Amino acid sequence: MKKWEFMPDIKNQYKLIPWILKQFHNFVFQTEKSAFIWKLGERSLSYTVHEKGGGKLADVDISLAKESGSSPIAETRIFSVGLTPMKNVSNVDKGSISIELKTVGKRLKLAEERFDDLYNRFFPRDENGLVDWPKTTFWEQIRNSQRSKDTRIDLPLSQCGLNCIFCSTPVNGYNLKPEALRLLQYEQLQNAALEIGTAAKPGLRLQFFSTDPIAHPDIVSLVKLGKLAGYDSILIYSAMMCELADGLLSELIDAGLNSLDVPFYGVTAEVHDKVVGRSGHFECLMKVAREAVAKRISFKVHSVAMNINSHELEKIPKFVKELGGHFYDFLFVRDDGCSRVPVRELTPRISDLPKSVRRRLNLSIPCLGVGKDFRGKEDLTGASLSDRIQKDKDAHLDSRYKYEFADKCKRCKKRHLCSGVFPPYLEVYGDEEFEPFS
Ligand code: SF4
Questions:
Q1: Structural domain includes residue 21
Q2: Distance (Å, rounded) from C-alpha 343 to C-alpha 334?
Q3: What does pTM read for this prediction?
Q4: Is 33:40 a contact under the CB 8 Å cutoff?
Q5: Spacing, Cα 365 to ligand 1 middle (Å)
Q6: CA 253 remoteness from chain centre
Q7: Does ligand 1 have an atom closer than 6 angstroms to the CB of 369?
Q8: How far is 77 from 65, CA to CA, in rounded Å?
Q9: 421-424 — which CB contacts under 8 Å span 24+ positions?
Q10: What is the structure's pLDDT at 389?
């Protein structure tokens, strides 16, 4: 049997999964013996099946295996093999390809037994189990990809384990089998490392986002890389307070984390825990707050204004200040289409919110005293929020989301300073509270 080689040469290769499949291509498809020719697409996991000396017969997709919902030709702990024959392919050929694909599945299973070895060689670890970045084969690539701006890393794969009522992340997430998720997380780890690169000048910030960065099994290694790479500020946005309180925050701080951004949905466990759908979360949040302040890292707090917590919102900034943190924004509920509770039920009427809350909302609506003075402030991409509102007729504070205006806003003299509201606000509350400036 052919001896396996695990010496990655990933020059110009930024995707771990296709790279791995390429290593196993001849073994998995038995290319020398097969009655067909199997061609791996350059940039994806799709293959085409050709008749020897003839035309294309079928497409084959090798995707990551899901816990439920697919009906593949073959499936392993990690991969799922699907077949799409060309229209004119005979039933005999279809049958032969299906039989071969079942064998492909068996060989993929054998190949997967070597993956742990491959991960270990690809991401060598130190005595603490953290990735030893200078020993990775792509260390030179990391060092050569110099960053001169703040870097934002999205780690969207992992679930936070909470059930916040406004959240629109699917409850089942990616629904991948655990081993498939692990492979994807390794790919994400490599991509994130290359994205982090090195800080080409002092003062740069590295920020980790998405649901939820600390759920990535190698988040401590990534923070360590950020420090090694010369970033001055390393920040994580997280809602996983119980995991942080359970020792992870200390590990992250030791690795180089110096800024944490967390949500407070109320000043009592009763309200906060109800919003996140997990009892005991508020208690963990207090522990995290105390540790962050005691260890002198920057402790930032935001909140989301909803009907369920509107009576406690006003108290949050003072409460956070007394803890030693810095409260910066109330976010307004936006409709992503699949929040746990319909956005209509969550959304507060803006003019019912206390003035002090309105001033700190992440919208800008002059006639309601909503929004901070954004002049001089930059968003995460480095763009000025006020510039964005003023230059862009659609007035996007955040380009990922839709905003809308009432008809009467057309005659408002301050329309150019206004962000508008998220749909379906006008449908729920109408436009009575808005007063155009003349
Ligand atoms: S009237 Fe309309 S455009 Fe003018 S500030 Fe109010 S919401 Fe904005």
A1: yes
A2: 7
A3: 0.85
A4: no
A5: 6
A6: 21
A7: no
A8: 7
A9: 421/332, 421/350, 421/363, 421/365, 422/332, 422/333, 422/334, 422/335, 422/363, 423/335, 424/335, 424/343, 424/344
A10: 54
- The reply to whether ligand 1 has any atom less than 6 angstroms from the CB of 405 is yes
Give the pLDDT of residue 167.
80
Q: How many domains does the chain have?
A: 2
- Rounded to the nearest angstrom, the distance between the alpha carbon of 436 and the centre of ligand 1 is 5
Cα separation of 391 and 267, whole Å?
38
Atom of ligand 1 nearest to the CA of 409: 2
Cα(399) to centroid(ligand 1), Å = 19
Same domain, 144 and 279: yes
End-of-domain residue from the set 319, 348, 377: 348
Identify the CATH number of the domain in which residue 310 sits.
3.20.20.70
Please tell me the predicted confidence (pLDDT) of residue 173.
58
For residue 159, what are the CA distances in angstroms to 49, 61, 118, 345?
A: 37, 26, 25, 25
Please identify which residue in the block is written with the tokens 């309601």. Answer: 368
Domain check: are 85 and 168 in the same one?
Answer: no
DSSP string, 56-77: EEEEEEEEEPBSSS---SEE-S
Residue 218: its pLDDT value, please?
A: 96
- Ligand 1: centre distance to CA 313 (Å): 24
Domain residue limits at 27: 16-119
Structural domain ending residue among the three candidates 348, 369, 393 = 348
CB of 434 closer than 6 angstroms to any ligand 1 atom: yes
pLDDT of residue 312: 97
Predicted pLDDT of residue 60:
86
Query: Which DSSP category does 3 fall into?
Result: P
Q: Which one-letter amino acid corresponds to residue 371?
A: G
CATH number of the domain at 98, please.
Answer: 3.30.310
pLDDT of residue 172: 57
Distance from C-alpha of 82 to C-alpha of 276, rounded to nearest angstrom: 38
Q: Is 418 in the pocket of ligand 1 (CB under 6 A)?
A: yes
* pLDDT given for residue 134 in this prediction: 96
Report pLDDT digits (tens) over 233-261: 999 999 999 999 999 999 999 999 999 99
**pLDDT value at residue 87:** 86
pLDDT at 14: 46
| Ligand 1 contacts CB of residue 414 (under 6 A) | yes
Cβ-based neighbours of 95, under 8 Å, separated by 6 or more: none
Closest CA relative to residue 356, chosen from 315, 385, 414, 304: 315
Segments in the chain below pLDDT 50: 1-14, 375-376, 378-385, 393-395
